[in-house]
Amino acid sequence: MLATMKEVLDWAEREGCAAAAFDTPNLELLLAAIGAAEKRGEPVIIQHAQLHEKETPIELIGPIMVMRAEKASVPVCVMLDHGEDLEYVKRAVGIGFTAIMYDGSTDPFAENVRVTRQVVELCHGRGIHVEAEIGFTTGHEGLENSDDTRENVYTDPDDAERFVRETGIDALAASVGTVHGFYKVEPKLDFDRIAELKRRLGVPLVMHGGSGLSAEDTRRAIACGIRKINYFSYMSNAGVRGVEKVLAEEHPKCFHTLAHAATEAMQADAEAAMELFSMK
Ligand SMILES: [Zn+2]
Questions:
Q1: Record's Pfam families (predicted)?
Q2: Domains annotated on the chain, with CATH
Q3: Does residue 81 carry a catalytic annotation?
């Protein structure tokens, strides 16, 4: 069933765990993400990132995401990930997304507040919840050989407190030491910062770049207060491994054999991520 972000994150707070948020820019990822949630009997968040618009337009995959969520046996929030401008946010709202992440993190503070407030005003009247970001988490979701050389800017707790108060957002994406995409070096998470943000902000904390972290770091971040983890690159990569395995054994004539193998491998990866995030 279609769910709001608040419903899913309230569940995570009650359980002391983190909700999984998977980007699903194609049908195989979508089936894998919801398949994993249904198998585990847990709520989930599926997302379309504006960055993936070139791969799959939101007008194409968005309605399929909403329809699949409505038919799911578990609560599913359908969310825009890293919305970059108001026009794109409106497109997601028009399709029926139940949550919006707006990312003005590379703008100066005042500009980030100004546009985030516009997004909140647009969304709250429609029962849609908003996540926004302060600080900066470098890298790109699922882009190979990313040329992004920008450094992480850790979320400052004083700025974050002001940002939440002035924008009225429902969840905060905090930059705490993770990166988007594939890790080239061991990430160094700032757990004290997570705990301080959790104590001071009063809104759920979101950690982006959640795939590729060690199980130990992931659980410690959740114990410190992370309630939503964006997980994508390594799940997508699991699909490639699934296809490689089939091709090593046989050479199927039809593409759907490869699509099924990818879906199965990505669902297994998503289930493992959800098991880790559930803290059970
Ligand atoms: Zn992200």
A1: F_bP_aldolase
A2: 5-278 (3.20.20.70)
A3: yes
